[in-house]
## 1
Amino acid sequence: MTAACGGSPNFQQDGDAATDDDGGASNDGGTSSNDGASNMDTSTGTDAAHPNDSGAVDAGIDTGSVDNSDGFGTSRAACIAEINKLRATESHAAYALWDTVAVDTCVDDQATYDQKANSAHDAWINMVYPTCNGNAQDECLGYGTSPSEVVACLDAMWAERLQSNCSNCAACNGPKLTQTIINCISTSTCDFYGNYGGECGHYVNMSADYFSEAACGFSTDTTTGAWATQNFQ
């Protein structure tokens, strides 16, 4: 995968969690199964979003504080709940859900665009729907968009930490992104891009203490295995 690095605070990484090949994703550097993306800009001025109330309850997931205007309220609730459940296992503070109708439409559009193009992070990298880009993106290719399918993808991405070339990633963290952290996640023992094995980027994005919220988006294209995105800021 390629990177454009201008130093902190504008550090771009491209890396997707997939059950299939990337299908020609341009920034892939030989890792066929995984991609995570990150444009880590700690100077972002985006305010925390205020969630909309759908009032829906499904499969034990209370989505009363989650926007459901796109029909993905239960999946979105499951997405943020699982991310925070995994973060809690390492004592990281919970991410807030970055959730408005506009943001949800945007991340849905990104997932749909990428799936139709069969190219991970295409919309994110090329600023096709830029308003919800945030500072990082993970993407699930072909897992589906139901709550259980999204959880399965997130669990697979979190499991990246168990790879030997990701063994030091837990130490590459902090409340603010610094050049030291950037250097740390570019080594053989915290290998964001997967230059020394499977990539670590999804786990890095999901566990980062320098992000505070996440948006969960879902492809509306059901012609093939549905894709899902998680954007962080």
Note: The chain has one domain: 55-232.
## 2
Amino acid sequence: MRSVLFDHVWKKFYRGERHDSLRDLIPGALRTITSRRAKGELESEEFWALKDVSFEVKPGEALGIIGPNGAGKSTALKLLTRILRPTRGQCQVAGRVGALIEVAAGFHPELTGRENVYLQGAIMGMRRTEVVSKFDEIVAFAGLEDFVDMPVKRYSSGMNARLGFSIAAHLNPDVLIIDEVLAVGDVEFQERCLERMRWFKRGGVAIVLVSHNLQSVVELCDHAMFLNGRVCAIGATSDVIGRYVRDAFAASGEARQGEIHINSAELRHLDGTPVAEPVEPRTTLRVTVEFGVVVEISDVTFAFLLHRSTDQLTVYAREFSAQELQLASPVPGRFSIQFQFQTNLTRGQYHLDVFVKHIPSQRCIARLRPAGHFTIAENRTWAGVADLNVSATVSGLSIDLPSAVRPDTTYLPDPAAPVK
């Protein structure tokens, strides 16, 4: 059973041509009638926004769609909600759809928030009695009790997004389609939205989410799709995000821009095997970076940084001077630096960033990112970045305890405990 089906979909657009007068419309119509071009052929002002894209989402699943700006992510959602029609292929959505694709889409700027709740509810297929019964809950979830009778033209983008999501969230949809607009909400509201979507998942609602916040995609989605006009990768969320991060920096020329070049980097275990599978917390890894000196230069540092891939959070940063590494003045030639570190981290995707900086001018000479990418596999913690290896001790209890539990006992995290 499928709630969402995207079957070999192609979508093209015109790059700039607009028939806004009779003089332009008549020649354009004649060209369309007399044209004998093949169905899949493009004219000079046309381009493919989506090329042969396919995916499906079952009830209770969440698909995250990620990719750079202009990759066709919002176009895919507009096709699902029938705002647009595909050029080729088919889109099918089963059941009632709750959608939030653009901030204030469907809102009338001159109407109040109250009036727009009824208007948007009607557009989404809600009966008036249903809106009346849920009105207070909708407004409370959006946190707009004091502004519900104000015209929405005076709302901020965040207020618009909160009201739009709240209406969609109280539609009791079979399919929920959400675009990047949640990014304009504050942190507390974003967490409420994520919790609401988790609740929907548990209730069997299919979710399609477009977001640049990869951490939200990791937390919510069972699988992901990396889209860039066509499907670049689809599958397990961690694998797709890893591919996206690697591709995001692949075109950078920073590695070979100055007096010192970064030729290559290899991330391996201490026994020399490449890091290909997820690793456990507190594993020791080593990244070997090969540099090439083009012109002798002094007063440089070599930086090692670790980022969480899902939100670009800098987890760790450290610079090593050339003197520390006994490279007083690197001369033309090649040399390697081995950075060894421990993965005292919680579950997630991480990548390494290595660069060379000229100290007097603070100029970045060369940079390679990612210099390595890895995934931490652990299920003991709820959230966070650092693995603090926390233990807990019970003492001083005066009540009777089961024989299996005694005071003055230290309890270590259970690796088999379910993730919460």
Note: The helical segments are 22-34, 73-80, 113-123, 128-142, 157-169, 187-202, 214-220, 237-248.
## 3
Amino acid sequence: MNPVLSNISSKRKPVDLFILGQFQDEKPSLQLASLEPEFAKTVKTAISKGRFTGKFGETLSAYDGSNREAAEVVLLGLGKKRSYKTLCFRKAAAKTIDLAKAAKAKSVRILLDSFCTGGVKAVDAAGIFAETKVLAQYDFSRYKSKAAKSDAPKREIIFEIMFEKASAARQAQKAVERSLTIAEGVSLARNFINEPGNILNPPRLVKEARDLAKRKKLSCQVLGEPELKRLRMGGILAVNQGSTSPASLIVLEHGKNYKNRGTVCLVGKGVTFDTGGISLKPSRDMEKMKYDMSGAAAVIASMGVIADLKIPLHVVGITPTVENMVAENPQRPGDIIRMFNGKTVEVLNTDAEGRLILGDALAYSEKFKPKAIIDLATLTGACVMTFGDKAVAVLGNDEKLISRVKKAGESVEERCWQLPLWPEYGELIKGHHSDLYNIGGPYGGTITAAMFLKEFVPENTPWVHLDIAGTAWSIGGRYDCPKGATGVGVRLLAELFTNWRK
């Protein structure tokens, strides 16, 4: 259910829970005394006695008949005002949802202005709250027998976002609608990634892409194995030759009538399960290899968001989809394959498969004469070792495009950190019996993987590579995501394309 938008001057009924924010070591807002005079006295006393300081996450509550707005009123600490940024508000928004659940409230009112300061505007905060509300309550439980047997619909908490000014409430409506569209896309990406490998294999991902294209009025073309063989996409075919499921290259298009403004290609790695092939992965955590198609999930879901937001740009989403298995006739270490652009690769490690399928897809993107290319992939364990789950590694050949991607990521808390693509790293992947090796040795793995991809980017085309290996999966859950897939990349791309012409 969408949040209800209101303002202080509008008529309203009492709710179950009323939540206000309080910055650390600051005086309570004048609105608190106006809206809840008795509670304001309690707050003043608690602050003077040091029982409440406003540290982030600290709470002070009152539950009695003297409250005007709700049966229970809660003051939530926001921390120091000078260090309060958008990420702080996102976490505070998630905290309000936790408070509502703990109180078993059916209706909640939030004075949004009390959560805002110079760096966090109320209108923007309304959209962030709506997005966080959806993402923090995301649940993937379709395979739990109790969930399957329960016919009773889940009762959603009604959240009312109250502004001090009526004009802000009116302006916030668009921000809320946009955020809910993006949250829907993130949730869809999470659903794709959380599906087990025995359910979501390459043919199923093709079906999901076709269904999305039909719903969102996107153009959809699927190249099956006959077409891949005819086009000599040796990377995709070699990786998938150990699987009993056929490989595909999925191409989604939005905004063909905007071609005159330039085309942007998105490329996403779609390995629906990665055993490592003959270079078998360790058994520990191998079950997480269903998330090796997180790049493809982000691209497919983002194409739906781009369509819903009516972005005035020609965007093409390209997702090679395979399984890296050891049945049938798997590729072997030492095999030499010829890629779509004619370059040959000696496969030193069959677990470095993502770059092979991305290489073919990147080279294929030349067909669309792109103005820019962005690829997303859970590409390297080295990225996880470097950044953990805190940052996306960004590499590329165009500093202006890299800067735009980083700015978009910073805006939506999908932060990126740039690594170099110095020519010296390219020496590490030069082949002996072939043009290239598919790995570059034990060090600098994230960089050498990107150097490999660079060999397949159309000449003179701005390109950015996002290694999302560490950020695609939440191991223990976080404020806006339970344990499992995060859907990383969807919010970043939506932000990037929303501001593409600016």
Note: The longest strand covers residues 314-324.
## 4
Amino acid sequence: MATETKAQTPPYGVFATLKNSIEQLAQGIPNQIDRSVFPGMAWNAQNQLMIGLRFLGLIDENGKPTSALHELAVTDEARRKAVLAGIVRVRYSDLFALDLMRTTPAELDQRVTEFYGITGDTREKAVRFFLSVLAYLDIPVSPLFSRTRSGSGSNGAPRRRRVTTRPRVDQQDVEADEDEDEQSTPTSGTSRTITLRSGGELTLSASIDLFRLNQADRKFVFALIDKLEEYEAGIESETR
């Protein structure tokens, strides 16, 4: 059996997905287990589930249910646990041979790579699945796993967590800031209309805060104003 499991990728999905799927199949096992049996499940989760079912010997390579699945998919949870415990001990025989009460997390990772040929994130997920099964079946393991897996990577080193901090903004503070901005930095709203010599009117309107204009903008704005005044003064002198 050890040689058989080495040729297959062990389950690396979420154990709860497999557990819930077995409970669903306890209501009736179809002739073939494929993705259409679990329509509400994400494609990636379906793929991982199929890998798990094959590794545990619950379906064959063509998706046909095995006798092991018929024994496991029953409504009695105590019976399910007993059957699953037997399946797990056979399919993970290489890992159980390590004496899990004395195995360290680093050693388990190393052995999983040796036995199943997986590394990195896939190995970490596969180990997590294995430990979740053992916890569900109340199979004891070294206390080292409970200390390292909660806040560590697969090699026992602290796992970095990406933390994004966002300052808490209270709505009242926002409104107060807006009121303060309106009071401390008023904007000037004005317009100027002149009549052109050839007829028609030209209107220049502005809504700006003169105190916030940089030097270039101030020069530009006041130059426009001066031009309008010069143009208007010229028209007035012509009509006198």
Note: The two ends are 113 Å apart (CA to CA).
